[in-house]
């Protein structure tokens, strides 16, 4: 639902704080006609028209953060990448191969886990993420939606629109793709952390990525856009690969918690 609304609104980036009544009715009729299902129970005044200007503003804020020269260790990405892999230590690995984790996977017939090898997936994702050669920058490293705040008066006063990035406790120097991944993993999900909606398409990522590139170019000079590593296509690829790394990391962490502390958590996490 929200993906379609975003696409409709992306065609017109205006500064008005609210969509007109006419536009709301158009969106409502399109959704009700072409989507069906629960839309028959939704009224036009229940629609929440998303503001694409917030997306562009947040992208610029992230670009400014990535441009900072923070007086901390600049090679922390090496430790962090190793730490991701260490989540899959011997006890968890053994349980995954032939112990409690393996039994739960078989008992619940978790097809994806039965058909793939998590170790191979993580190994591939780690290798590719490093091989992309993306720049190591000062990253937030936890850009989930709870750490992105939008000023709540912007719906009544467009001049009040602002976006704030909070909770820097995981911040360090890391591949920039990590922040793109965390943002897009949450994109359009109704739940706080995860959901059943699809990862955004390349086209749906462009509004954010183009605003990021524009701001980085303003901060770093015209030479920024002349490097292939800073192209739209490269940033899309970084977002996808690091999203896979991030999701593998979360799966590993869930398995570890399930084995070490709370077996019931293991089943719930599946």
UniProtKB/TrEMBL annotation:
GO molecular function, one term: choline kinase activity
Lipid biosynthesis as UniProt keyword: yes
Keyword annotations of the record: Lipid biosynthesis, Lipid metabolism, Phospholipid biosynthesis, Phospholipid metabolism
GO BP of this protein: phosphatidylethanolamine biosynthetic process
GO terms for cellular component: cytoplasm
Listed InterPro entries: Kinase-like_dom_sf
Domain of life from the UniProt record: Eukaryota
Family: Belongs to the choline/ethanolamine kinase family.
Protein name: Uncharacterized protein
Annotated source species: Oppiella nova
Lineage: Eukaryota, Metazoa, Ecdysozoa, Arthropoda, Chelicerata
């Amino acid at each position: 639902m929200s993906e379609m609304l975003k696409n409709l609104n992306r065609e017109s980036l205006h500064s008005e704080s609210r969509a007109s009544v006419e536009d709301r009715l158009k969106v409502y009729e399109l959704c009700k006609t072409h989507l069906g299902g629960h839309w028959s129970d939704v009224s036009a005044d229940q629609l929440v028209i998303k503001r694409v200007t917030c997306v562009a503003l947040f992208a610029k804020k992230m670009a400014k953060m990535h441009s900072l020269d923070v007086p901390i260790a600049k090679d922390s990405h090496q430790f962090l990448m190793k730490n991701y892999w260490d989540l899959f230590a011997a006890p968890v690995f053994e349980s995954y191969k032939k112990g409690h984790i393996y039994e739960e996977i078989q008992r619940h017939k978790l097809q994806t886990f039965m058909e793939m090898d998590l170790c191979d997936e993580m190994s591939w994702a780690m290798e590719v993420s490093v091989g992309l050669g993306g720049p190591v920058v000062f990253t937030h490293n936890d850009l989930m939606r709870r750490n992105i705040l939008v000023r709540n008066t912007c719906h009544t006063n467009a001049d009040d629109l602002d976006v704030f990035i909070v909770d820097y406790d995981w911040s360090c120097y890391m591949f920039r793709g990590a922040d793109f991944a965390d943002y897009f993993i949450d994109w359009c999900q109704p739940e706080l952390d995860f959901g059943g909606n699809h990862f955004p398409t390349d086209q749906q990522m462009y509004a954010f990525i183009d605003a990021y590139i524009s701001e980085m170019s303003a901060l770093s000079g015209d030479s920024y856009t002349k490097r292939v590593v800073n192209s739209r296509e490269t940033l899309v690829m970084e977002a996808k690969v690091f999203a896979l790394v991030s999701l593998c990391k979360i799966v590993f962490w869930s398995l570890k918690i399930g084995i070490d502390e709370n077996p019931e958590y293991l089943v719930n996490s599946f």
